[in-house]
Amino acid sequence: MLPIVVFLAAALVDAKPAPLETGLDPALVLPPPPQAGSTQAKVELLELHATQDARSTADEAAARLDGKTHDATIFAAALGPRFDLNTLPQTARLLAMTRATEKALVDRGKAEFRRRRPYAVDPALRSCERNDDPLSSYPSGHASMAFSMGEVLARLVPAKAGAILARSATYAQTRIVCGQHFRSDVVAGALLGALVADRLMAIPTFTAQFARARAELKAAGIS
Length: 223
What we know:
Blueprint: H1 4-14, H2 26-29, H3 39-54, H4 57-67, H5 76-79, H6 89-113, H7 118-121, H8 141-156, H9 161-177, H10 183-200, H11 204-219
Helix pairs in contact: 1-6, 4-9, 6-8, 6-10, 6-11, 8-9, 8-10
Protein backbone atom coordinates (compact mmCIF):
# COMPACT_ATOMS: atom_id res chain seq x y z
CA MET A 1 0.00 0.00 0.00
CA LEU A 2 1.26 3.46 -0.89
CA PRO A 3 2.05 5.81 2.01
CA ILE A 4 -0.77 8.30 2.46
CA VAL A 5 1.43 11.28 1.45
CA VAL A 6 2.44 9.61 -1.81
CA PHE A 7 -1.15 8.59 -2.47
CA LEU A 8 -2.43 12.12 -1.99
CA ALA A 9 0.35 13.54 -4.17
CA ALA A 10 -0.52 11.10 -6.93
CA ALA A 11 -4.18 12.05 -6.68
CA LEU A 12 -3.30 15.72 -7.12
CA VAL A 13 -1.11 15.00 -10.13
CA ASP A 14 -3.75 12.80 -11.78
CA ALA A 15 -6.65 15.17 -11.17
CA LYS A 16 -7.97 16.86 -14.28
CA PRO A 17 -9.27 20.30 -13.37
CA ALA A 18 -11.94 22.04 -15.38
CA PRO A 19 -10.96 25.04 -17.52
CA LEU A 20 -11.11 28.38 -15.73
CA GLU A 21 -13.10 31.26 -17.17
CA THR A 22 -10.74 33.88 -18.58
CA GLY A 23 -13.16 35.90 -20.67
CA LEU A 24 -10.98 35.31 -23.74
CA ASP A 25 -12.46 34.64 -27.18
CA PRO A 26 -9.82 33.52 -29.71
CA ALA A 27 -11.80 35.11 -32.55
CA LEU A 28 -11.58 38.49 -30.81
CA VAL A 29 -7.97 38.43 -29.58
CA LEU A 30 -6.29 36.77 -32.57
CA PRO A 31 -6.05 38.14 -36.09
CA PRO A 32 -7.53 35.87 -38.75
CA PRO A 33 -5.02 33.57 -40.46
CA PRO A 34 -3.71 34.56 -43.89
CA GLN A 35 -6.17 33.89 -46.66
CA ALA A 36 -5.52 30.81 -48.76
CA GLY A 37 -3.49 31.75 -51.81
CA SER A 38 -2.41 35.11 -50.39
CA THR A 39 1.18 36.31 -50.60
CA GLN A 40 1.70 35.64 -46.89
CA ALA A 41 0.26 32.14 -47.19
CA LYS A 42 2.62 31.40 -50.08
CA VAL A 43 5.62 32.72 -48.15
CA GLU A 44 4.71 30.58 -45.15
CA LEU A 45 4.50 27.50 -47.35
CA LEU A 46 7.90 28.29 -48.85
CA GLU A 47 9.33 28.51 -45.32
CA LEU A 48 8.04 25.02 -44.55
CA HIS A 49 9.62 23.60 -47.70
CA ALA A 50 12.95 25.33 -46.93
CA THR A 51 12.88 24.05 -43.35
CA GLN A 52 12.06 20.55 -44.53
CA ASP A 53 14.95 20.59 -46.99
CA ALA A 54 17.38 21.84 -44.33
CA ARG A 55 16.39 19.65 -41.39
CA SER A 56 18.69 16.85 -40.35
CA THR A 57 17.64 13.40 -39.19
CA ALA A 58 18.45 14.51 -35.63
CA ASP A 59 16.36 17.68 -36.04
CA GLU A 60 13.39 15.67 -37.21
CA ALA A 61 13.75 13.10 -34.42
CA ALA A 62 13.87 15.83 -31.76
CA ALA A 63 10.86 17.58 -33.28
CA ARG A 64 8.90 14.34 -33.38
CA LEU A 65 9.69 13.68 -29.72
CA ASP A 66 8.54 17.16 -28.72
CA GLY A 67 5.39 16.72 -30.76
CA LYS A 68 4.45 13.70 -28.67
CA THR A 69 5.03 15.51 -25.36
CA HIS A 70 2.00 17.46 -24.19
CA ASP A 71 2.93 18.45 -20.64
CA ALA A 72 5.34 20.52 -18.57
CA THR A 73 8.11 17.91 -18.70
CA ILE A 74 9.35 19.88 -21.72
CA PHE A 75 10.77 22.38 -19.19
CA ALA A 76 12.78 19.83 -17.18
CA ALA A 77 16.13 20.83 -18.67
CA ALA A 78 15.45 24.53 -18.06
CA LEU A 79 14.46 23.98 -14.42
CA GLY A 80 16.95 21.30 -13.46
CA PRO A 81 16.80 17.72 -12.13
CA ARG A 82 14.68 18.63 -9.10
CA PHE A 83 11.78 19.56 -11.35
CA ASP A 84 9.86 16.29 -11.17
CA LEU A 85 6.10 16.73 -11.23
CA ASN A 86 5.63 13.35 -9.56
CA THR A 87 7.13 14.89 -6.42
CA LEU A 88 5.66 18.39 -6.88
CA PRO A 89 1.87 17.89 -6.62
CA GLN A 90 1.00 21.55 -6.06
CA THR A 91 3.00 22.61 -9.10
CA ALA A 92 1.53 19.76 -11.12
CA ARG A 93 -1.95 20.90 -10.14
CA LEU A 94 -1.23 24.49 -11.15
CA LEU A 95 0.10 23.44 -14.55
CA ALA A 96 -2.87 21.11 -15.06
CA MET A 97 -5.16 24.10 -14.46
CA THR A 98 -3.15 26.07 -16.99
CA ARG A 99 -3.28 23.28 -19.54
CA ALA A 100 -7.03 22.70 -19.17
CA THR A 101 -7.79 26.39 -19.65
CA GLU A 102 -5.41 26.85 -22.56
CA LYS A 103 -6.56 23.73 -24.40
CA ALA A 104 -10.22 24.64 -24.17
CA LEU A 105 -9.47 28.01 -25.73
CA VAL A 106 -7.15 26.73 -28.44
CA ASP A 107 -9.72 24.09 -29.41
CA ARG A 108 -12.31 26.84 -29.63
CA GLY A 109 -9.98 28.85 -31.84
CA LYS A 110 -9.36 25.91 -34.15
CA ALA A 111 -13.11 25.38 -34.49
CA GLU A 112 -13.67 29.05 -35.28
CA PHE A 113 -10.88 29.56 -37.84
CA ARG A 114 -10.79 26.11 -39.53
CA ARG A 115 -7.52 26.70 -41.34
CA ARG A 116 -6.14 23.85 -43.38
CA ARG A 117 -3.01 22.13 -42.15
CA PRO A 118 0.11 22.59 -44.30
CA TYR A 119 0.02 19.03 -45.62
CA ALA A 120 -3.62 19.52 -46.61
CA VAL A 121 -2.56 22.58 -48.61
CA ASP A 122 0.46 20.86 -50.16
CA PRO A 123 0.56 17.04 -49.95
CA ALA A 124 4.19 17.12 -51.08
CA LEU A 125 5.23 18.26 -47.60
CA ARG A 126 6.76 15.45 -45.54
CA SER A 127 5.09 16.26 -42.24
CA CYS A 128 5.97 14.25 -39.15
CA GLU A 129 2.36 13.14 -38.82
CA ARG A 130 -1.09 13.90 -40.18
CA ASN A 131 -3.90 14.75 -37.81
CA ASP A 132 -7.41 13.35 -38.04
CA ASP A 133 -8.74 16.86 -38.58
CA PRO A 134 -6.94 18.66 -41.45
CA LEU A 135 -8.82 21.88 -40.63
CA SER A 136 -7.11 22.46 -37.28
CA SER A 137 -4.01 24.47 -38.11
CA TYR A 138 -4.75 27.84 -36.50
CA PRO A 139 -3.73 28.48 -33.77
CA SER A 140 -1.05 25.94 -32.87
CA GLY A 141 -2.01 24.03 -29.74
CA HIS A 142 1.58 23.00 -29.03
CA ALA A 143 2.73 26.63 -29.14
CA SER A 144 -0.17 27.72 -26.96
CA MET A 145 0.63 25.05 -24.38
CA ALA A 146 4.34 25.91 -24.35
CA PHE A 147 3.77 29.61 -23.83
CA SER A 148 0.92 29.38 -21.34
CA MET A 149 2.89 27.00 -19.12
CA GLY A 150 6.13 28.81 -19.84
CA GLU A 151 4.74 32.17 -18.78
CA VAL A 152 3.34 30.67 -15.57
CA LEU A 153 6.62 28.92 -14.77
CA ALA A 154 8.58 32.08 -15.54
CA ARG A 155 6.52 33.86 -12.89
CA LEU A 156 7.04 30.99 -10.45
CA VAL A 157 10.80 30.85 -10.99
CA PRO A 158 11.83 34.28 -12.29
CA ALA A 159 15.54 33.52 -11.95
CA LYS A 160 15.11 30.95 -14.73
CA ALA A 161 12.58 32.86 -16.82
CA GLY A 162 14.98 33.29 -19.74
CA ALA A 163 15.69 29.57 -20.05
CA ILE A 164 12.03 28.69 -19.57
CA LEU A 165 10.75 31.01 -22.29
CA ALA A 166 13.59 30.03 -24.61
CA ARG A 167 12.38 26.47 -24.25
CA SER A 168 8.82 27.59 -25.05
CA ALA A 169 10.16 29.09 -28.28
CA THR A 170 12.23 26.06 -29.33
CA TYR A 171 9.32 23.74 -28.58
CA ALA A 172 6.97 25.86 -30.68
CA GLN A 173 9.52 25.94 -33.52
CA THR A 174 9.37 22.15 -33.81
CA ARG A 175 5.90 22.58 -35.33
CA ILE A 176 7.60 24.30 -38.25
CA VAL A 177 10.38 21.71 -38.38
CA CYS A 178 7.79 18.95 -38.52
CA GLY A 179 5.63 20.73 -41.09
CA GLN A 180 2.63 20.58 -38.78
CA HIS A 181 1.86 24.30 -38.77
CA PHE A 182 2.42 27.50 -40.68
CA ARG A 183 4.40 30.32 -39.07
CA SER A 184 1.29 32.40 -38.33
CA ASP A 185 -0.27 29.38 -36.57
CA VAL A 186 2.71 29.22 -34.23
CA VAL A 187 2.75 32.96 -33.60
CA ALA A 188 -0.99 32.94 -32.83
CA GLY A 189 -0.58 29.97 -30.48
CA ALA A 190 2.23 31.70 -28.61
CA LEU A 191 0.16 34.87 -28.30
CA LEU A 192 -2.91 33.00 -27.07
CA GLY A 193 -0.83 31.06 -24.54
CA ALA A 194 0.69 34.24 -23.14
CA LEU A 195 -2.73 35.85 -22.90
CA VAL A 196 -4.11 32.82 -21.06
CA ALA A 197 -1.29 32.97 -18.51
CA ASP A 198 -1.87 36.67 -17.97
CA ARG A 199 -5.61 36.24 -17.44
CA LEU A 200 -5.12 33.28 -15.12
CA MET A 201 -2.99 35.41 -12.83
CA ALA A 202 -6.07 37.56 -12.16
CA ILE A 203 -8.27 34.63 -11.04
CA PRO A 204 -8.26 34.06 -7.24
CA THR A 205 -8.57 30.26 -7.52
CA PHE A 206 -5.52 30.19 -9.73
CA THR A 207 -3.44 32.65 -7.70
CA ALA A 208 -4.12 30.66 -4.53
CA GLN A 209 -2.79 27.55 -6.24
CA PHE A 210 0.11 29.59 -7.63
CA ALA A 211 1.13 30.54 -4.08
CA ARG A 212 1.09 26.88 -3.03
CA ALA A 213 3.17 25.90 -6.04
CA ARG A 214 5.70 28.67 -5.43
CA ALA A 215 6.16 27.58 -1.82
CA GLU A 216 6.56 23.98 -2.95
CA LEU A 217 9.19 24.84 -5.55
CA LYS A 218 11.10 26.98 -3.06
CA ALA A 219 11.10 24.10 -0.56
CA ALA A 220 12.39 21.80 -3.29
CA GLY A 221 15.27 24.17 -4.04
CA ILE A 222 13.87 25.31 -7.39
CA SER A 223 13.88 29.09 -7.31
